[in-house]
Amino acid sequence: MPPAERILVTGAAGQVGSELVPYLRERHGPENVVATDLNPLPEALARAGPHLRVDCRDPAAVEDAVRRHDARVVYHLAAILSAAGEEAPRRAFQVNLEGLVYVLDAARGAGASVFVPSSIAVFGPSSPRDPAPQEGALRPTSMYGITKLSGELLCDYYHLRFGVDVRGLRFPGIISHVTRPGRGTTDFAVEIFYGAVEEGRYTCYLEPDTRMDFLYISDALEGAVALMAADGDGLRYRNAYNVTSFQATPEELARAIRAHVPEFEVDYEVDPVRQALADTWPRRLDDGPARADWGWRPRYDLESVVEEMLQRIRARTNPEERRVDAS
Ligand SMILES: NC(=O)c1ccc[n+]([C@@H]2O[C@H](COP(=O)([O-])OP(=O)(O)OC[C@H]3O[C@@H](n4cnc5c(N)ncnc54)[C@H](O)[C@@H]3O)[C@@H](O)[C@H]2O)c1
C-alpha cells in the first residue's frame, strides 16, 4: 500500500473519473481524495468522500480547490471528448486547453504533480496507422486532437520551464461499465454491451470493419497510477506515453459477444462525423516505450473484457447475478 497522499481529481463524474476516484480512495483513504466536476457527481462518489463543484475554466476556483485541499497530486480528467468537441469546438478549446493551463498554474503554485490523459486522437491522417509510433507525424484534424496534442506540449513546457512534475498517457478507446462514455468516437465499444444485455440488439454508428484500439478501465487506472509512481528520471516521453491493450472492429466485438449471447444482433447506421474521426485515428498504438521505460503491462484482452463487461452489466440489471458478483 502506498503512503496516503492528498489528491484532487477534476472531471470526476466522467467515464474515467467515476472509477478512478474509488480506486484512489481505496489506496489513500476516502478523506484524502477530493472529487471535483462541473456537473453533479454520481451519488455514491459524493457520499463516499470530499467533493466540490469546480469549473476548470475558472482559474481562481481551480487554484482555490488545489490549495484548500493541499493536493499533492492532481488527476486532471475534465475534458470535452471528440464527437462532443466537433459539436462545440470553441468549448472544447476552452475546457481542454484553457482549463489545462489553469490546472498547471495551480499545481505549479502549490508544488503538486499532475496526471493529464492525452489521446490516440493526437495522431492524424498523415500518421502511420498500424502501429502509430510514440514519436513522428502528429497532425490531428479534429478540435479534440488539436487540443490534446497542444496539451501534451503545454505539459512538457511546464515541466521543462517551471519544473512541474506532469505526466500523461495517450489513451485509446476506454471500455468501462460504471459511467457511460461522454460522446467520444469509441463509445460504441461500451454501448454494444448494454445493447447485448438489455435489448439483444445494437445499432452501431461506425462501419463494421472499422478497426480501433482499446484499453479496459482497470488497465487504464493501473497505468495512470504506475506512471505517477515511476522514477521521473527514466521517463523519456512524460507527456505522453502511448498505451494500448487490444484492437477490434465492431464486427469482431459483436462476434466475441455472440459467444456469450448467441442471439445478439447488430446493424449499422453510420454517423459521418464519428466515422470521419475514426478514419483518421490509428488502428493500434505502439506501446513499446511505455513497456520499456516504466513497465507498462496491460492485463486484459478482447475475450476477458467481453466476459467482464457482460458479467458486470448483467449484475446491475439482474439481482441474482449481483449476489454472485458480490460474493
Ligand atoms: N474515455 C475514453 O475513451 C478516453 C480516451 C482517450 C482519452 N481520454 C481522456 O481521459 C480523460 C477523461 O475522459 P472521460 O472519458 O472520463 O470523459 P467524460 O466526458 O466521461 O468526462 C469528462 C468530465 O469532465 C467534466 N467537465 C466538462 N467540462 C468541465 C469543466 N469546464 N470543468 C470541470 N469539469 C468539466 C464533465 O462533466 C465530465 O464529467 C479526458 O482527458 C479524455 O480526453 C478518454
Number of E-state strands: 14
What name goes with the CATH superfamily of the largest domain?
Answer: NAD(P)-binding Rossmann-like Domain
- Strand residues, percent: 5-15%
Instruction: Give the count of structural domains.
Output: 2
List all distinct small molecules, including ions and cofactors, that are bound in this structure. nicotinamide-adenine-dinucleotide
CA-atom Rg in angstroms: 19 Å
* Spatial separation of the terminal alpha carbons: 24 Å
Structure write-up:
With 327 residues, the protein is an alpha/beta fold. It has helices at 17-28, 43-48, 59-68, 82-87, 89-110, 143-162, 188-199, 217-229, 250-258, 272-280, 288-294, 302-317, 319-326, and strands spanning 7-10, 33-37, 51-53, 73-76, 113-115, 118-119, 166-167, 169-171, 173-175, 201-204, 212-216, 241-242, 246-248, 265-268. The strands form 4 sheets. A 6-stranded parallel sheet has the order 3-2-1-4-5-7, sandwiched between helices. Strands 6-8-12 form a 3-stranded parallel sheet. A 3-stranded mixed sheet has the order 9-11-13. Helix 3 (59-68) packs parallel to helix 5, helix 7 (188-199) crosses helix 12 (302-317) and helix 12 crosses helix 13. The two termini are 24 Å apart. Nicotinamide-adenine-dinucleotide binds next to helix 5 and strand 9.
